[in-house]
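User: Quick one: structure for sequence A, then sequence B.

Assistant: Sequence A:
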Amino acid sequence: MKNWLTLMIVASASLLFGADAATFVAHDKVAEALAKGGPLGSTKEYTVSGSHRDKAGQVEVHEKETDILYVTDGDATFVTGGAMVGGKMSKAGQWLGTDITGGQTHHLVKGDVVMVPAGMPHWFKEVPKSVSYFVVKVLKE
């Protein structure tokens, strides 16, 4: 009886709060996303993808996306904060630039996590060989 009641409470909460079904991504698709880059799943609240870089990127600012990165392999120099130089809107709510002044430099290696709040400039400034990482983007309206 107690397990049945717990099940009903959980099921009711899922219906009331709009919880989606769990998403499973098989290891082969995860490995491919980490090797080549690619999406793993998304909802209206977040996206999850695997990424791989073998060179530096552009400075980015996302007005409505918090980026959470988890490095799975390799290393990179990653800069956060400061002010974007040469920023141009690439699409609604997204900016790309050429440099950051006054930011904080981080040397990312396997196992590191970095959380970049929406609106903060960030940049893979140097990628000596390659870096693979998961990206969770928390979306705000």
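Sequence B:
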Amino acid sequence: MHSDPIQNNPKDPLISILVYNYDKQYLRQCLDSIFNQDILKNFEVILTDDATRDGSWDIALEFLNRYPRRIMVNRNRRVQGPSANLRNCINIAKGKYCASVTNDQAFLPMYIKNCVKSMVLDPNAGFSQVFHKDHPHVPSPSVLNKPLVSILCYNYNYGRYLKQCLESVFAQTYENIELCFSDNASTDDSWDIALEFARQYPEKMNLIRNRKNFGSDANFANCQRSMQGEYAITFCSDDALEPEYVERCVNALEAHPDVGFALVNRAIIDENGRRTEEPPFYNQSCVIPGEEQAGVYMMAGVNPSISQIMYRQAVVGGRSVVGGLAARYYGTRILDFNISTDFDIAYIKEPLLLHRIHSQSDTNQADTNLLPVIGIYVLNHQFADIASVRNLTKVTDRLPQSLDKLARLAVRYSVRMLLANDEHNALRYFHLAMAINPQLAGESAWKQLQEYWTADAPRKAGILEQFASSDNLASRSISYDPPPGSIPIELDGKAFTPSTPLRRATSR
């Protein structure tokens, strides 16, 4: 008979190495490193396979045949998820101490040995990946200590941008994410690209494809039904994330429990990937009192792209608007406003989102339909109505000022359209500005626009040259101070906890 390589030696306690939900790409390398090391002598391996179909189970059986007295294997009949699998591994383990290895974490035998040595001397000690089996208060693996973030990505025929989009998701420095992807029966190569990523990251990607195009609302609802995260990002499939996007937002939300969502700055990319920087809306990263931010929403959109926000899911319920054109273009703006009437918000000034503007984007189509002005005109009246019920005077008092700013925004859009060689829509925005605020007729920008329509070609060119060089006219060129009561966030993105907890807006 073969001797048992595992000993019951108090001076060399048995260590159970828990391998679960491990990336198949690195599983063989991980197991080789466990069995080929000579630092840990007295160990067993508990391996749980979470109903995989990627070949991971075959690798587990191979090592079982090679080391039958060292390894115990468990295969689920259906997916249970990392938390359940960790509990199962602990229940099966025979060792006094456990060391967990999951996702694509490296097996570090010297680290484990030193952790166990510390726990032998101090029974109350615990580490992120190494813990006493009978101490339930000891931390679980670091990825499980971090809240799950759901990235909701719904797509239709954006295959030309989708690879960059999905690559940016799986390049995040924050590990505990899930991608909830739904394709609306695309006719391009979108589905093939999605399948490629699903094969690479099967444990991080929920995948849905509609049998026909059911519309954007139904497509997004697919993503919502599959999400399980504590935090969520609505991510447009033509955009891309910078690697630290998720980590920076989670840091801010975890440090400030009264914050309803975290908002990042963006940079612009075109259909060829050329990048243009945009000044941050606020000139510093900060936590902003909710009512103050609600007042700002009366004056400006702040976040033109829905991909700029990470929401705390516990505060979203009952505040979102779904269905139809209004929801498509303004549903998130209504949601953001409603959240800010009850919760503070975090702003991160670094451009962590790459927002793509191209001829087929919703943003471009909205611009040509006058929605950035007409829609906001109606929206601001709705915001004022909501605020009046809640007695938020900082919001209602800004309605007249917000309408004046909308008229000036119409002038800016008129200029933008001229600079884009779209005289038809430039003329529409020009007249819309006057309809909202006739007093603009005395201002220089409006007079220049009025002159443009009757000028000869050389004069038109001169006016366009003046517009292109005018600060904050063709596009916003300045950043603003945060509203009163805002608290700075450290530049490295790790939000500090204020000495006096921030209160919800409703308590002010």
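The chain has three domains: 15-144, 145-363+484-507, 380-468. Confidence is low (pLDDT under 50) at residues 136-144, 491-508.

User: Thanks, that's what I needed.
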